[in-house]
Amino acid sequence: MLTHDSYAVQPSRIYIVEEGPNPSTDYFILPLVTRTYATVLRCSWSQLPNVADLHGACVIFIRYVTAAWRTLIEQTKHSLARLIYFMDDDLFDWRAAKGLTWRYRFKLLKRATWQRKWLLKMQPELWVSTPWLQQKYAQYKPCLVLPAPLNPANYCNKLPNHADSANVEIKHSDKVVAKKCNISARDGATDLTKDCVVFYHGTGSHQAEIEWLLPVIEQVLAVNNSISFEIIGNAKTHKLYDHLKRVTVIPQMKWPTYQDFIKQSGRHIGLAPMLDHPFNQARSYTKFFDIHRAGAAGIYAEQGPWRKFIEPSKQGVLVPMRVASWVSAILDLAATQALRASILKAASDTIHELLSEAQIHSFEVKAQRQAPEGRHSDQRNAH
């Protein structure tokens, strides 16, 4: 059972174990741990602390587990204050990844799915990103951790003040954010002289959506020559869209580079399609944050997780996953600048509300809420 009973003194150090800088940590974990009195250290897979340093500490695995860290945890498990495993996709079930690229599926299997047996033995607390994951793995008594918007410095448009992460020590060798992507039009940069720039920024797990959008984009381009598209994808994506002159395919990039890239101005409409796929059932609503960070109005799949706070045509446009519906939605929103401005304003208000809510939730508060019956509410725990 993934129920590490560790309601003790708050640890003085929290180690976040991650492959590298990533949205999972930034959206879900940092908003909690940066409000503690603990020293927070972000460690890559190769950056292992000394055994003595883990005494009384908390270790949080972000999505993946490696052999070196397994060995270290086995040596120090009984001296840890807390051991936590966080996942924001359905990483325990290999069937959920069916249909994704083989390279991505193998990574999930090696670093996550095949670690399930070991994790059960180590008994960490399980943290998950969505109510769907919480319900599926209810037997492990998971804790639900909802995402929070990033620091306003990572936005194209101004947002209300948000607690920063000044007490976080970044230990990655690649901690410096890359410079802005000044790429020529055919090599990857969007031509910002177009009247309306529509973008879809996917990852290796979004290839199905990238392919689904092809007829949508083809039809939009055939009707309106003032619209251009920007897509992040791989070589397969570039080949798929290469015949379309007003589509720019930008190579996939690491998270720090993307944070700098998305802040560049000139984007007007962001797309968030979501197919009925097992892997998508566990998706959270962080695409809403990404689109707003770009200073754009969003068009979203109506059955996606963002529907909990998007009112139709207010904070975004909700559309069924039909090609004709998406074509119409893009054309209508591109032609109505006032509506785009209204959506962006309403989305900003929602971001402000989410930021305010995030500030009242902390590592310690979540621990108190999750404490078993009979515990005193004034005990200081880290959750």
Give the overall pLDDT as a whole number: 82
Give the biggest beta sheet: 7 strands, parallel
Multimeric status of the protein: single chain
The neighbouring-strand order within the major sheet is 6-5-4-3-1-2-7
How many domains is the backbone divided into?
Answer: 2
Structural class: alpha/beta
Work out the strand percent: 15-25%
Runs in which pLDDT lies below 50 for 5 or more consecutive residues are 1-8, 158-194, 367-383
Tell me the overall shape.
Answer: globular
Question: Element order, helices and strands?
Answer: EHEEHEHHEHEEEHEHEHEHEEHHH
Cα(first) to Cα(last) distance is 17 Å
Please tally the β strands and state the result: 13
What share of residues is helical? 25-40%
> How many DSSP helices?
12
Radius of gyration: 21 Å
Tell me what the structure shows.
This protein is α/β, with parallel strands linked by helices and 383 residues long. It has 2 domains: 13-172 and 356-370; 185-353, 3-Layer(aba) Sandwich (Rossmann fold). It is built from 12 helices and 13 strands. The protein has helices at 23-33, 67-76, 102-111, 116-122, 131-136, 207-223, 235-241, 255-262, 286-293, 323-334, 337-359, 363-370, and strands spanning 13-17, 39-43, 58-62, 82-87, 125-128, 143-144, 168-170, 196-201, 227-233, 247-251, 269-272, 297-301, 317-319. The strands form 2 sheets. The chain has a 7-stranded parallel β-sheet. Helix 6 (207-223) crosses helix 10 (323-334). The protein is globular. It starts with 12 loop residues before the first strand and ends in a 13-residue tail after the last helix.
